[in-house]
Amino acid sequence: MEFLKLEKVKDGKYLKNYEITYRNKSGKEKKYEIVSRRDLADVADIGGKPSGVSIVATCQDKLLLLHEFRMGVNRYVYNLCAGMLEPDESIEECIIRELYEETGLHVKEIKKILPASFAAVAFSDTTTYIAFAEVEGSFEDHTSENEQIEAKFYTKAEVKKLLDTEPFSSRAQMAAYFFSEG
């Protein structure tokens, strides 16, 4: 594949739409659409700086899951606590802030932060970290008026039941499955 051109098609508040012109392996010129959370100057910028984090949080052998309404799918789904990095914010600071904003909980220990991975490789260059943390505290609602989130801890047995009957984000589903299997 040979990238020929990158052109911004739309500049939204949170997402920017781009059209990539490329030459395929047969030598034909083709176009491909992607979205990014960042401004991209050229194709070398694609897949650059990570934009956020997803947090696999546990407390005393229970998994934290958010039951939240997501506009993109017009329904409630089970999800991980997650959010976007603020300018000049470290990944650790982002983990602490997002956990508190979405749940009122506090980080007891960050156990591991995986290298950034692609969130939706078919249509976006967005990369996010996945962090594993032990958390503590009491649930409090600090979400914005535009978020509808219920945070709760679940046992392995409860997670197994949810996996069979409820919609999940793919990352939360994978984390929940491995948590439930021990």
Descriptive overview:
The chain is an alpha+beta fold and 182 residues long. The protein is built from 3 helices and 11 strands. It has helices at 91-103, 156-165, 170-180, and strands spanning 2-11, 16-23, 29-36, 52-59, 62-70, 75-79, 81-84, 106-113, 117-118, 127-136, 149-154. The strands form 2 sheets. Strands 4, 5, 6, 7, 8, 9, 10 and 11 form an 8-stranded mixed β-sheet that branches. Helix 2 packs across helix 3. The radius of gyration is 18 Å and the shape is elongated. The protein starts with a strand and ends with a helix.
Give the helices and strands, then pairings.
Blueprint: E1 2-11, E2 16-23, E3 29-36, E4 52-59, E5 62-70, E6 75-79, E7 81-84, H1 91-103, E8 106-113, E9 117-118, E10 127-136, E11 149-154, H2 156-165, H3 170-180
Parallel strand pairs: 4-10
Antiparallel strand pairs: 1-2, 2-3, 4-5, 4-7, 5-6, 5-11, 8-10, 9-10
Which tags fit this structure?
43% strand, alpha+beta, 11 strands, 182 residues, 8-stranded mixed β-sheet, 3-stranded antiparallel β-sheet
